[in-house]
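Q: Clavaminate synthase-like protein, please. Structure only.
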Amino acid sequence: MAPELGSYQYVPETKEILDWADLVTLDLSKYGTPEGNKELAKFLIDAIREKGFFYVKNFNISQERVNRQFALGKEFYELPLEEKLKYVPDLDNGKFNGYTPAGRRIIDEATGLRDRIEIYNIPKFNGHFPQKHPAVVQERITEIEEFARALHTEVLDPLFVLLAIALELPEDYFTNIHRYEDKSEDHLRYMKYSKYSPEETARLTSWVQGHTDLGSFTLLFRQPVAALQIKDHSTGEWKWVKPQDRTLTVNACDALSFLTGGYVKSTIHRVTIPPKDQQHVDRLGLLYFSRPRNDLKLYTVKSPLLEREGYTQNEFEASGNPVPTMEEWTFAKQKWQRTPNRSYADNAYRTATILPGFKEKIYDEVPGSSPAVPVSA
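A: Structure for Clavaminate synthase-like protein:
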């Protein structure tokens, strides 16, 4: 029997006045009737096209279960580093399930200061991803599996049905390419951002530069340490994302952008320096990353709505380059993301070609960065 988890204490929210993003909340208690689904489908498509991020409430997972996952993540990160290092995958070749230690990125070129971000990824429990875990995780693996599967059935499946309705596709279109039993690179993540000294903080502009996620939807549980910012699709302004009680924060990602020919925009976001009254604490994150099945080729779907609106080709199709499978796309972008010793100031890296036909973009400038070097697509 696993030792009892300690309670998890959330830090107080910031008292500073921040420029919060005006995000909408999708209420899943309305899901399940034709009228409710139609209303929510419009709500969803407007949210991901106009803002990219939105909140979800009433998703049938208790706050107690969420708190236990945060407590588990906290226990994992309290393990000695030498124990955590036993679970590092082949990061240099794009592998990501297991533990990623801090310090692979240079975040201040002048001093050589490195990131303090640690990641522990747990893949799907569907037989495709055997993985060893430290005892603190393995002893609670049944509970973790129940939680991960609940996120799929209670949150993701409804979102995929609503997206299909919005795009005038069969309701099961997106659920069929995101079935839990199929091989895909979904994973649950415990993520820790350790604090910096006041002197170090004064040199930094962000902890993680502006970027997009590579999958379908990312689910982010409430994190009271304010640091997440999104880039507004319409104005280009950076806005803070406010933590909301008993909600998930959700963002659309690259795969959905490819599958809709750019109609669904992949959300640009970053993790910046917390406000002064929260800079003395570490930041623990709990996330779930959803991705289509590995063998799916990322062609633009044949949707009546997309045809009418003129969204019929994604970057790969428009450039005449081969359209990758989701697996090819995942590991190409993960390998780029995990490049060791990279510097945030290296714009040649930040505009690299991930696959022929797709080049990364610079979404925020880093002080001291070099001019972007064109890279052939």
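A: Brief note, in case it's useful. The domain at 25-359 is CATH 2.60.120.330 (Jelly Rolls).
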